[in-house]
Amino acid sequence: MSVPGGSRLIVGIDKGTTVTKAAVFDEAGTELSRAARFIQVLSPRRGWHEEDAEVSLRSTMDAVAEAVAALPGRAGDIAAVSVSGHMTGAWLLDDAGRPVRNAIAWPDARTLDTLTAFEAGPLYEEYLDISATSALPGMTMLLLGHLARHEPEVIARTRYFACAKDYVQAFLTGRVVTDPTDVSLMPGDIASGRISPRLMELTGAEAFLSRAPEVRPSGEIIGTVTREASLATGIPEGTPVANGLGDAISAMLGTGVVLPGQAVSVLGTSWLNQLVNSHLDDDLRGVGWVYPSPDGEHWIRCLAHTAGAGTFDWAVRTFCRDLTDGAGADFAAVEAEALASEEAGHGLTFLPYLSPAGVQAPFKDGNVRGVMLGLEHGSTRGDILRAVYEGQVYAALDCYRRQSDDLSLLRLTGGGARSRVWRQTFSNALQVPVELVTTSESAALGVAILASVSVGIWKDLETAVSAMVRTVGRVEPDPRMAEPHREAFERFVSAQAVARELFAGFGRAGIQGKD
User: Fold this and answer.
1) Do residues 35 and 67 lie in contact, with contact meaning Cβ atoms separated by under 8 Å?
2) Cα separation of 294 and 277, whole Å?
3) What angle do CA 98, 101, 107 make, to 5 degrees?
4) Are 225 and 81 in contact (CB under 8 A)?
5) Which residues cross the membrane (predicted)?
């Protein structure tokens, strides 16, 4: 159990897409130090998203070394290390764990045409039967299929294919290992948590089957810090390394969301709405992504809707020019105007689907676009702003309601979580408490929590979360607002159905207009 004074430390590493970060936490979850380095993105062709894996590794180790050095005399207190990383993509490694080509990261779009044809073909239903998750151009198996066709010479040089965190772990321990969360988005067999030979065959990646990494449970001690890694980071040789997590799951754990009915919404460019489920059903087949929970006992479904920061920025830019200047918008003034309008009682319904990609969750519709209904002479700017805030919340509510009626707690993170209007609207519309967490490095904290259990600091994840995750502010739902929001959400869903039918008739060309 816990050592008095919280003397043991855990290093959490978050290998990001554009920024890689390292943080040192004590066993109470206090962030004692952190450091970051940018990742250089390489685009040798349009739509490609690669990185020099060895350069990225050095940057990551530099961040770890800086975070450790910021606590002089404390390196010997480090009890464990664990790694989070951006999911899917393709890191091809040789026998010594060195990259055989540039790493390909998840935003890469080189397989887009292949994916479009695959989704329309006869094998996609079998793919969904095995994976239960929506396909992305940057998924590992699609990328491996592309490489098998266009760069077959790399197959012979490859001993392992892996994901971002696996490569970092390989340097730390000398062992190439992945975990079920990263496997889920390669994708793999969702039922077993293993790499699926049949999925590799369906995606044209079967030539790489013998190059699959070992899959071990999340949190299992997979090795210890080698002498080389110790010299690079300052972490003592022999320090245990716990098998890490994909970043989406690690960030969720870092917000303290671990039990069925708990959820986290990341309010960023897109809004990621992630809910822990006790079971899966087919109602959302082919929409969003499905991961196993870190303890392997539950399921996490992530539904990302595109009505995020871009939609809100459009509203402010269009309706609040007097509240913006070269330095940005006066968001306090924007919120004040919205708060002056009656919550769920202004008579407007806003569909926030302004993205050219249309809607990706909780349904897929590339044609539907944004709509504002109910405008009249008396409608104020505050009413319009309030409708935009609420419409974005209803899009998230739509994602949660199609998964479960048992939502009990929502935590918010990302830039939009700072908004008073969004916090209260979420709470009142969903009729659940809404909380914010103190850490800004939730993915690094997530793997630190995992590692703390692995080395026996805490007995299980629920106990570790209680000890290591702290919230700042809690918004309780107003029961008087349940009915107004229920009625407003019903109008939202009805408007959504009409808009989908309307825009389907125009098609993409009709929506996008002339060049």
Assistant:
1) yes
2) 13
3) 110
4) yes
5) none
Mean pLDDT of the chain: 93
| Euclidean distance between CA atoms 225 and 215, whole angstroms | 19
Distance CA 404, CA 281 (A): 10
Quick one: pLDDT at residue 507? 55
pLDDT digits 0-9 by tens, 126-183 = 999 999 999 999 999 999 999 999 999 999 999 999 999 999 999 999 999 999 999 9
Degrees to nearest 5, angle at CA 375 with 329 and 398: 75
The H or E element that residue 80 is part of is: strand 78-85
Q: Which two tokens mark 101?
A: 């080509």
Q: In the structure encoding, which two tokens stand for residue 276, read together?
A: 């822990």
Tell me the per-residue pLDDT of 362-372, one tens digit each, with 9 for 90 and over.
998 889 999 99
53 touches 107 (CB < 8 A): no
Which of the residue ranges 183-192, 322-331, 505-514 would you say has the lowest mean pLDDT? 505-514
Helices then strands (H, E): number in the chain?
18, 23
Radius of gyration of the chain (CA): 23
Q: For the residues of 234-302, what is the DSSP string, one character each?
A: -PPTT-EEEEEEEHHHHHHHHTT--STTEEEEEESSSEEEEEEESS--STTTTSSEEEE-TTSSSEEEE
What is the reported pLDDT for 513? Answer: 36
